[in-house]
Amino acid sequence: MIDLYQSQRAMRRMRKAAMDRGVVAILDIGSSKIACLVLRFDGPDRFGENDGIGSLAGQSSFRVIGAATTRSRGVQFGEIDAMQETERAIRTAVQAAQKMANLRVDHVIACLAGAQPRSYGLDGSVELSDSVVTEEDVARSLAACDVPDFGEGREVLHAQPVNFALDHRSGLGDPRGQIGNRLACDMHLLTVDTHVVQNLIYCIKRCDLELAGLASSAYVSGVSSLVEDEQELGSACIDLGGGTTGLSIFMKKHMIYADSVRLGGNHVTSDISKGLQVPLSTAERIKTFYGGVVATGMDDREMIEIGGDSGDYEHDRRSVSRTELIGIMRPRVEEILEDVRARLEAAGFDHLPSQQIVLTGGGSQIPGLDGLASRILGQQVRLGRPLRVQGLPQAATGPAFSSSVGLCLFAAHPQDECWDFDIPAERYPARSLKRAMRWFRDNW
User: Where do the SHS2 domain residues begin and end (predicted)?
Assistant: First the structure.
């Protein structure tokens, strides 16, 4: 656990150093779009004293001064598939955002949706050297958590303390300064595929940018879309993206589970393309303007002109009813929601007190999706939009930008990444620190 603790601290220090320069870029690399936001940090209260505790809502001390999006290329299932295509798309988005901000950005904080995330629950406990809990005691309890054997080719992306217990009192958010004898910690660990992360880091380096932080798209979408009460009582955020559908569960304002389904809006577009025998671009337009998942009596009479440029007049002048279009889209959407339901059941979501489900992401804008989701998932479902942040353009306030806005909040206030405390020197041998530094040097 010591190696992990040190590498997480090193990542956090790099993120702080980038923000201390005053400007940092946010890069959301998705399967359908690549979004770049340039943030300017100002004000003396850039980092609060309780940096690491509490909700992120309403704490933004930054302003968006540049924003740009471009169509994603070379990304499938949230993972880089063609390096040169993705590099070109990232350069396009970053340069457009820099032009709007009228300054150059060297450091970026990125999020990724793929990489097959897996969640683990850890726990550790220590005897207190003094009766009052100090930062050193908290650090020792975090370091005492035993990291599971998550296998070769996996890498830790998030390691967050979600609960502290002092003697027999559990549910503590911040145990510092309290009196007791034994301190225990519960931790959530999220691992991802190492090769996917390394490809992303290499691609960003090829764009002449320095990576100052990395986050899971499912996590940051939940940060921006769930209101404070939902994060407290137990809610799930379902981020319907282009290539993947991210899933995160929050409890007591902490993420306690994350997963992803390798299906998304692009698969619905592909089904329309095959079913109607039209190009993908036409299928995307038809899905955006006429799509839905619940058919009514009026839809039989609503005809959709397909259009085309194949040169065959009869083929290009075809039209289909909206009912037929819904009949193509609904089975795929049901498949995505049923996969999500299976993941929620495996995570024990039924045992949470609130069980609120929030749909966000570009795919959540399909008309009638919230009603279909409530029937399949059997819970309270609402459509979520990201929190408003200062300077965000109107075009970037929709559900498709939940992960981008959440990444801004994550960058400004790293809620509970391994708390930035020093571990006492006698707790770890020198070789552990050297190994952690070598890991960081090789991977960043």
Answer: 24-225
Pairing of strands 319-321, 356-360: unpaired
Name the amino acid, one letter, at 409. L
Q: pTM higher than 0.70, yes or no?
A: yes
pLDDT > 50? residue 428: no
For the stretch 56-85, pLDDT in tens is 333 447 888 888 999 888 888 888 888 888
Are the beta carbons of 37 and 64 closer than 8 angstroms? yes
Beta bridge partners of 121: 188
Count of other CB atoms within 10 angstroms of residue 5: 23
What residues contact 288, with CB distance under 8 A and at least 6 apart?
Answer: none
Which residue in this structure is represented by tokens 């399949």? 376
Please provide the DSSP assignment of 209-274 as one string.
-EEEEEEEHHHHHHHHHS-HHHHHH-EEEEEE-SS-EEEEEEETTEEEEEEEES--HHHHHHHHHH
- What is the domain partition of the chain in residue ranges? 120-194
Domain 120-194, CATH number (from 3.30.1490.110, 3.30.2130.30, 3.40.50.2000, 3.30.710.10): 3.30.1490.110
Give the pair of three-digit tokens for residue 228. Answer: 């404070």
Q: Which of 275, 294, 283, 274 is nearest to 366 (CA)?
A: 294
Return d(Cα 125, Cα 214) in angstroms, integer: 28
Q: What distance in Å separates the CA atoms of residue 35 and residue 394, rounded to the nearest whole number?
A: 14
φ and ψ of 272, to 5 deg: -65, -40
Q: How far is CA 377 from CA 242, 337, 382, in A?
A: 21, 7, 12
The encoded tokens of residue 407 equal: 């990444």
The residue among 172, 164, 156 whose CA lies nearest residue 125 is 164
C-alpha to C-alpha distance for 26 and 293, rounded to whole angstroms:
33
- Spatial separation of the C-alpha atoms in residues 408 and 387, rounded to whole Å: 11
